[in-house]
Amino acid sequence: GSQPLRVACIGAGYVGGPTMAVIAAKTPPEAVQVRVLDLSAERIAAWNSERLPIYEPGLSELVFAARGRNLHFSTAIDDGIKWADIIFVAVNTPTKECGIGAGAAADLTYVELAARQIAAAADTPKIVVEKSTVPIRTAEALSAILEACGRTSFEILSNPEFLAEGTAVRDLCEPDRVLIGGDLKTERGRQALEALVELYAYWVPRERILTTNVWSSELSKLVANAFLAQRVSSINSISALCELSGAQIDEVARAVGLDRRIGPRFLQCSVGFGGSCFQKDILNLVYLCESFGLNVVADYWRSVIAINDWQKQRFTARILHSLYNTATNKKIAILGFAFKKDTADTRESAAIDVCGSLLQECAKLSIYDPQVPAEQIWSDLTRRCRRTRDELAAYVTLAATADEAAAGSHAIVILTEWDEFRTLDYSKMYKSMCRPAFLFDGRSVCDLKALSEIGFLCYAIGSPDDSRIQLR
Ligand code: NAD
Ligand code: UDX
């Protein structure tokens, strides 16, 4: 028979790992072979172990079944490049920390390094797929580098990833759409595009595979994230109005979302969106608009982030006011540290900001999260507070259970919507707490009426104020 299609991916992170696992799982090994490559020996070792480096429901089953069959993890990047027909680039593209565009523009260092590595190693024609989220026209830069440094020919495609963490496997197996941008003007461009379409067509219905020009594809990714984040900021802005006016945010969200033009999803108010993508991609869009002189457009999108920052501050301020304006040396139980449920990821988690602000008030935090590793919490908080772990240790403890976190505390603060927080034994926790016992629900997981009956003084985002809580 003919050779299998050889697919490599540079970057074995949240996107590269699950995406390649699903490609391998959905294709026969005689037709498609997949290699996932990374600089980090530690990450690759974890992908090859029993304990994968990331937690996603359903992921380990897929990886264990395909690993060694048509899915391979390796640090031999040059070998992998030489071997492959199609090379996905799924490296990180964080916000630039210094220089021009610091705090807004995307840092393309890793993308460029990957391109240079491909150019140096490749000796047969390759299709290079931009999987990382990048500013519009990055493909042009990639192409220039590959052409200038390479010995062979390259076709560049843009294929942004829309998976969300916590549902990565489902999102990859049943995507709303797969977007592929390519050079539709040349025969080779069209062939490259068709090769990638055929790969996805193993499991994605053809009508859900969209092909566009490269620039539309690159931009669509930024715009999709900006729209999603905007919905969260929109509902969060209204949550503040609800608290003061007596309306209930979930009732408003439901009434509004039943309009089919608006739709019900992504209208869950919260302590603020987090995750590695929303803020970074909006900042990227803002920077792009500014660089084209579209300042009004830039300001519009920047306000989505401003609302998000305000939501986090507002929540922390409410905690402080409720605790009679002092949190000093008060034990506070923090339930949830991940940026959303079903992931151990804490990147840009609202919990980091809320905990950081409470630590500035000299509160004593006892933090419980069912998935986030202790090391991650320490590293996030030491970075946020600019204090050493030893300095923080007087104020921060990590609890093994929610009960342990709550014992002896003045308040419970819910920052991630883990399912298990819905069914905790709150009356038992109440008994172990100081009086008055407060509960601040940043994720709408609790039944406020039931908690009030237990005796808690409750505050939930978007719910009218509990009149028993002293305000201001
Ligand atoms: P990540 O940090 O989890 O993984 C990136 C990996 O790339 C790291 O393991 C790093 O070691 C590796 N790497 C960097 N440079 C390399 C090089 N030159 N050679 C080999 N390996 C290299 O990042 P991620 O969350 O997977 O995101 C990757 C891209 O996908 C970003 O552009 C992001 O915006 C985008 N994206 C992320 C998500 C998400 O939910 N996390 C969703 C859609 C799109
Ligand atoms: C997001 C996009 O959804 C995904 O398509 C893209 O590929 C990557 O960025 P992710 O960051 O993994 O995915 O999670 P998402 O479910 O979008 O949630 C982002 C943040 O918004 C979380 O902190 C979440 O708690 C918050 N959120 C989401 C809300 O506060 N309310 C909502 O209604 C939805």
From TrEMBL:
Q: Which organism is it from?
A: Cyanidioschyzon merolae (strain NIES-3377 / 10D)
Q: Which domain of life is it from?
A: Eukaryota
Under NCBIfam families, the record lists: NDP-sugDHase
Provide the active-site residues from the annotation.
Answer: 277 (nucleophile)
What is the name of this protein? UDP-glucose 6-dehydrogenase
Keyword Oxidoreductase among record annotations: yes
The record places domain UDP-glucose/GDP-mannose dehydrogenase C-terminal at: 333-448
Q: Pathway it acts in?
A: Nucleotide-sugar biosynthesis; UDP-alpha-D-glucuronate biosynthesis; UDP-alpha-D-glucuronate from UDP-alpha-D-glucose: step 1/1
Q: Which residues form a coiled coil?
A: none
- What are the recorded GO MF terms, alphabetically? NAD binding; UDP-glucose 6-dehydrogenase activity
- UniProt-listed Pfam families: UDPG_MGDP_dh, UDPG_MGDP_dh_C, UDPG_MGDP_dh_N
